[in-house]
Amino acid sequence: MSSENQYRITIDENVEYLKRYAFLERACMRTLAGWLPGIPEWEAKNEFGLHIWESADAADELRARLRELRCHQPERGISSVLETLAAELDNGQNTAEIISTVYLVVKKGLLEAYRQHPETTWADFDRPTVKMIERLVLITEKQVAWAEKFLSTIEANYSGWQAWRDYVAGLMAADGGVNGHDTKADLPIRPENHDLLLPWSKCQRMPDWPIFDPNQDFEPDRKSEPEAHRLWRFKHYLNEMTAAETLGSILWMTPEMPWEYQHNVSRHLWDEIRHSQLGQVRVQQLGLNISDVPQVVQIYDVMMTLPAVDQYALLTTVIEPNGMPEKSTNREHWEEIGDEISAAAVSYDWSDENFHVRWGKKWTPVLLETYKYDESPAQIAARTEAWLLENTPVKMQQKMALDAH
Ligand SMILES: [Fe+2]
Ligand SMILES: [Fe+2]
After folding, report:
1. End-of-domain residue from the set 116, 148, 174
2. Pairwise CA distance, residues 100 & 169, whole Å
């Protein structure tokens, strides 16, 4: 039971708090998605992928609770300073500025607010909020702990990031903190040289990492060279990082789309990170280091010459459906030769892909309508597939497209 005689927020104030939490979670999702291709550090890319999904899911849960509290326009009436803060998160210039603001200002602020929320609301009457917030505390704690540890390992590689962090923290303070109820500080002065770098036209890697050479990429025969084929295949899995990066830029470039789409794309993005991770696990088990595997950066870079809608239609209505038969064949093959680990990995991939294809069917028509295309889903699929056959640097994608028809 809550103690008596303590000030508790009203249900209307509770709605305003939860709206701000949801808005900030969405802002974190959005900035991390836009920046996924822009940061070179591999560990951070992998963690961002998970946290983009966790932030999207937190925003989704908060919005569901807001509906129960009869708030159906959760993004209406957000203060202009908080809107500014969300837009400014994108304007960081490097990994240290993104991590120190998204995680160590916004997420850390959210964590503090989540921890206090049960004492702030009428917990006895608002149990569904408390139950949800208790879950968000556990998730956000892990995210912040990772960021603190990771930033300490890279901060020396970047200079001057503290000034940008202080500016973003200043915006939060000028709006009365995460819940908006603290005493409001004066607006901070904006540091210079912070023009928007998004969307990234080329995805970034550590400078000493090897880059893929399309002319050196040959598919070993599955039956006669099973070990070489397997290693080749899992190297391509590792490179699904670029699919996640593509989705990060697509998500960042399509903010006009409904929330449900953004929630789905966030999950799709994390799934592609997981596919890269199943490749990472497997190539390491097979004796390679991740940093020895050439990075297929070219597929992200060439796709970014297309608008976001074309990229989404190409990925979800061409590349992903074309890739399904090969996954089933690999699964049967690996089961046949008794490689249970590889078979398990591809089984989960196959399962995820069913949803990606389903989302593609659902959202491509909405994208075409929202961005005023006069093409049908079938027309954009045919056009982008023809483009893929000409432009992809990955022979495997060409082969899958040709085999599909
Ligand atoms: Fe995938
Ligand atoms: Fe996929």
Report:
1. 174
2. 10
